[in-house]
Structure formats: structure tokens, C-alpha cells
Amino acid sequence: MPGVHRKALLRLQAMAYMACTVAELPPLRVLIAAPRGFCAGVDRAIQIVELALERFGAPVYVRHEIVHNRFVVDRLKDMGAVFVDELDEVPDDRPVVFSAHGVPKSVPAAAQDRGLTYVDATCPLVSKVHRQAQRLIEEGRHILFIGHAGHPEVIGTFGQVPAGSMTLLESVEDVADLNLPDTSNLAFLTQTTLSVDDTAAMVHALKQRFPSIRAPRSEDICYATSNRQAAVKGIAPECDRMIVIGAPNSSNSLRLAEVSERMGVPSRLIERAADLDWEWLGEPRTLGITAGASAPEVLVRELLDALRTRFAVTEEVADHSPERMTFKLPRELVA
After folding, report:
1. What angle do CA 151, 154, 157 make, to 5 degrees?
2. What's the predicted TM-score (pTM) here?
């Protein structure tokens, strides 16, 4: 059986070559933050688009990106979702889904006026902030809203209340510069995807300047944002570099990179492995990896596969308490 022996010999040679090649690669310890990636609100929003496609057939229109991640959006496009900027682009006979970031009241009202079938994929934690804003306005309070100008969540929240009843604050300096005619009946709310530390500093400044200001009943920054920032803080002291997988327009992903940078760890936000700057990465001994709440786990694995082409990678997943939060799907899609 000389042919069989020859094949066995070739396999052994190939294995020996691979082992030799791996041995020549520089070692890299990769610390993978946990929790990372999809949160319950993102998972729910994606499921809503998928279920809408099953129920209504393609195309299903989605106003704005369902979540801030190109990979997710492109996958849903391939399934038959059509992403548009405004409701005017949706045909009268097709359903539309509103993104996880929330929309102003005027958007579902316009959909109803046109008789459109629509499904609201707003994250329930964002909806909670919307309800708080409405209650505070009903109480006659002026709301100071901590957030980032132009972010869809901020636009959606401002769209829940009458114009002029809410003031946007982006920094501690904005708190100092506030000049309101009446400060006797104030309240504050926050965007759900902010830096925990920055927001704490702004809240402290607000309470120092306006001791009687009404605070939210519970923290508005969502559990996923807080948990992912805490996870980065947990691994950053051991890391020489930090890579955050997420979109450049994803607030929670940007905050993860900021958290790491502030701890003295050079950090980069990338959308996919192909975006990694290998020259910037160099040859660290320990690399931290995390992913924003809109980034699927497949992109983490893709990055690890890319790293293995240049390093002898050893993976370690940080200890963590698993997230068990789930949100119900809209009744119209699961009935």
C-alpha cells in the first residue's frame, strides 16, 4: 500500500510545517471583554425586521438604519429590507419599521395619516425615557437633556415633547453656561448610550448648580452601555492595545474606545477586521477586544481569525456576569 503510506507521510509533513510556522509567529494574548456585542434592544430590533419580512414579504422598508452596524444592515438588505431616510420614500402599500433609536411622535402620526402599516422597533429602554419626558412636561417642568446633538435617539426624544420644553447639554461647560429664565422647576434625563463617567460628572454639576432638580427614577444609561464600559475597564489595565468593533456612528461603541483611551491604552474603533491598521497594532503582548452593542459576534471571530494569520493567538474571555435581559416582540408580529 505505498500510496496510502505516501499520503500519511505528506499529512505529517504538512502538520509539521504548520506547527513550525505557528511557532515562528509572535505570541499574542487576546483578552476578550465580556459582556460585549448585541444587547437585548438590538437583538429585538433585528428580529422585528426579520419577522416583518416573514409576515409581509419583501420588500419591508426601514426608516433609518435599524441599528448602527453596516454588516447587520447589509445582511437585512440581502433579505429584502429597504432602508430609507424619510417616510416619504415608503410606498403606500408596503410596511415600514422604525429603528431601535426611536422616532419623534410626528413619524408614526404621519404613517397613520397615510394608512401605512408600521412596526415600532424602538428599544424599550429608549421608550422608557420618552415616557419620562412626557410625564415631566405634564408636570410643568423644563427638561435638561444630556446627550449628543444630532444622534437619532436625541432627535427622537426631543420629538416627544413641545418645542422649547427641553434643552440639550453635551458637556459640563454647557451646564455652567446655562441661562434659563426660570430654574425653579427643572428635571434632567439622559441619552441611553453615554459615557458613564462623563454623565456622572454632568449630573454632579447639575445637582450642584440646581439642588432641587428632579432626577430620573432610575438611571437612563442602559444596562448594556454600563456593562460594556465596565468590562473594558476590567481588562484595560492588562492590555497594550484595545480594539473596539463597532460603527463610527455608534455612540456606545465610540464610548468604549474613549473609556480605554482614558485609561492610557491606545485604542481603535474598527467596523471589520479588514479595517485594522496592522502598523498601528505593532506586536503587543496583550490585546483587548470588545464590541459595541450593535456588533454581532461573527465580527469578533472574524477579527480573531485575521490576528491568527500574524500571531500565535491565545484567547481569554474575561470573567463576567451574563446578561439575561430580554424584551418582548410586538404583538402584531408574533400573534
Report:
1. 150
2. 0.90
